[in-house]
Amino acid sequence: MDNSNIQQSFYEKTARNRIASIVDKNSFQEVLKPGSIPVSPNLASLDIVGSFDDGVIIGQAKIQDEPIYMIAQEGKFMGGAVGEIHGAKIVGMLLKAIQEKPKAIIFLVDSGGVRLHEANAGLITISEIMRAMLKVRNVGIPIITVIGGTNGAFGGMGICACLSTHVIMTEEGRLALSGPEVIETIKGVEEFDSKDRALVWRVTGGKTRYLLNHVEFLVEDDVTDITQGIVEALQQPAIDLDLAYLQQQQASLQSQYDKWFGEKDSIPIWQSMNIDNPESISMLSAQQIRAIKKG
Fold it and tell me: 22-170+219-240 adopts what CATH topology?
């Protein structure tokens, strides 16, 4: 039986399997291997079992023979939440990239945000990741973030994802600041019903983010499609992170805010964008959505 055309789900894989499925065969070399660092003392003090890698894998590899750095969050450990050691590994890899100049950093984000069990340590770590990401971009090294895991990119990691040079999303991926459960808890179910999964994906999912130009690439939940998206991003020209660029991005976001503030679903937004049959968007493939955007 020929299995070459069978789709391999990125969503269903562990972080280590995601890395192995994307990089050149046998090219990944892990930094700070399991057992080489202590587990989180903050979790231990709360009688919570830690993880040998604290929920994030870092290392170097190649994609189509191009040297890259890899950072992959394990969403199955505490929802990929960022704690002190978890964040220190990410920051260390980012700063190491500034010294060694890889072609790019590939960041597989799968996180609900800060690990509240670690309180201020987790919040400080997010700010350190943000600062390190900006330093990396400032020296011309692109950061390519992939969002397609079980937890999406929320909270502090939602902010970090948006600091990337390029963002690749699948329909299954989600990107936002506050998660659906947080909004519902604070504002009530009338504001946002977190149990309405179709609504959650329409509002925070990859299709909406792509159509609104919040992310650059929309791909299928397939490691081959995701790898191709990474290769295309690697070929993109460098983006100058200057004041003019930031002002342009801010103006675009302000325009969207002025048009659609108060909308509680994406369907009326798609309709106002003159998309035919906006109710059908959720049923379309990534390829069909890309065709709609191209017009």
Answer: 2-enoyl-CoA Hydratase; Chain A, domain 1 (3.90.226)
